[in-house]
Design goal:
Chain lengths: 152, 219
């Protein structure tokens, strides 16, 4: 195709014939691509994460339910969160251990978090105390509205 | 384009795909008198493949339990992207498949193709028709709707006409006296695994025999 000009009067490749052939090839190729696309697109779309209607629900905890020194467990978007009542007020942590993601549990006697998987310990403020971790627990933002703690 | 051609060439050099394709597809001779009615068997097979693929997708979310089945099908139809389409294709192609199998058989019967040496083609085909209807019957219970429930109830009542053992057969297919979660589990295992496996074996036989005798030449 690069030396197109030299062959313009070639019998085997009249411009008309060449153009028509290329048009037909493009048309067949295009039609095939559209057909394959209409099959592949729905399959790929089906594999996308579905809309789970329950996911968007906020967590609401009335403040009077929170006891100082104790933990309140809740489920936020499929992940456990832990609300602890410190002296300065409530704090919310993502229960996922920053090592490999097991759920940590609140230890009331020591006022700290323990991970059952590989023994990580986090302080009541979520700081690393010991274990195979170097990152503090993730804090989850929340608001207090009319005496109700809201995570959304 | 170049990349595709080179990759194909690389594989072809080692695996000899082209002669295989030429022998079986591109240069395969079929009788010139073959009519369009000769396509129905292949089309029935195509709808089977459609059912296998859409069925595998539905299985990602379907839950075979009386308390969850209907919700899971509703979830597929309303929350999964393109779920409504995949679910509809599976339900519509099921009907289409039965129609195509019947049209395929009508051609064989009309042209008397079932005669020697093709008797076994016909016999295996009768089993394939039965298996296809069983697939549709077992699948119909899975969404666990009122229609499903009463459809299964009526369908499983039929063997009660058999003398003496009729009632036992009914209870055996229902896995109990009534249509229950056990029926659903039984139909589910038949629908997604047992029947497709048996069907694949019969199709394998059917196709091997057709390759041996070749397509029949209408007189
Ligand atoms: C390996 C192959 C197959 C698998 C894994 C499969 C899987 C499923 C699943 C999970 C359902 C429940 C979801 C729903 O109700 O839409 C279903 C329903 C159904 N299947 Fe299949 N299927 C297969 C092949 C077939 C075939 C060959 C037929 C019929 C010829 C068939 C007919 C049906 C019917 C009629 C329904 C009910 C659809 C409705 O009313 O909504 N399936 N199948
Ligand atoms: S996941 Fe928590 S210590 Fe390993």
């Amino acid at each position: 195709m690069s030396d197109h000009h030299e062959h313009e009067h070639d019998v085997a490749c009249e411009p008309l014939t060449c153009g028509r052939r290329r048009f037909c090839q493009a048309a067949i190729g295009g039609a095939t691509a559209i057909t394959v696309g209409t099959v592949v697109y729905p399959i790929v779309a089906f594999l996308k994460l579905p809309v789970r209607l329950g996911d968007a629900k906020p967590v609401e905890v009335p403040l009077e339910r929170l006891v100082p020194g104790q933990a309140y467990y809740a489920d936020f978007q499929g992940q456990q969160v832990i609300v602890v009542m410190a002296e300065a007020g409530p704090k919310v942590f993502d229960a996922a251990c920053t090592h490999l993601g097991c759920n940590v549990v609140w230890d009331t006697a020591h006022s700290n978090f323990h991970c059952p998987c590989h023994g990580a310990v986090f302080s009541g403020e979520g700081k690393v105390v010991s274990g195979p971790v170097s990152t503090p627990l993730r804090e989850v933002p929340f608001e207090v509205k009319n005496g109700v703690l809201v995570i959304s | 384009m170049r990349v595709i051609r080179d990759t194909y060439g690389w594989i072809d050099e080692r695996f000899a795909v082209t002669p295989l394709l030429e022998k079986n597809v591109t240069k395969k001779m079929v009788p010139r008198t073959l009519s369009w009615a000769g396509c129905f068997g292949g089309l029935a097979f195509f709808t089977f493949l459609v059912q296998v693929f859409t069925g595998m997708l539905l299985l990602m979310y379907y839950k075979p339990h009386p308390e969850a089945a209907w919700d899971s099908v509703t979830f597929i139809k309303s929350n999964v992207t393109m779920g409504w389409l995949v679910q509809r294709i599976h339900a519509v192609a099921a009907n289409l498949m039965i129609a195509l199998v019947l049209m395929h058989m009508a051609r064989i019967a009309y042209y008397k193709i079932y005669r020697k040496p093709r008797e076994l083609h016909w016999m295996s085909g009768v089993f394939l028709l039965l298996l296809t209807t069983m697939m549709a019957f077992t699948g119909y219970l899975l969404p666990w709707t009122q229609l499903s429930y009463w459809g299964a109830k009526v369908g499983t009542e039929i063997p009660s006409a058999i003398p003496i053992i009729g009632q036992d057969v009914v209870e055996w297919v229902r896995r109990g006296k009534a249509i229950s979660g056990e029926t659903l589990g039984f139909f589910f295992s038949l629908h997604i695994w047992i029947l497709p496996a048996v069907m694949s074996a019969f199709m394998g036989l059917h196709f091997v025999m057709i390759r041996r005798t070749g397509i029949s030449r209408p007189l």
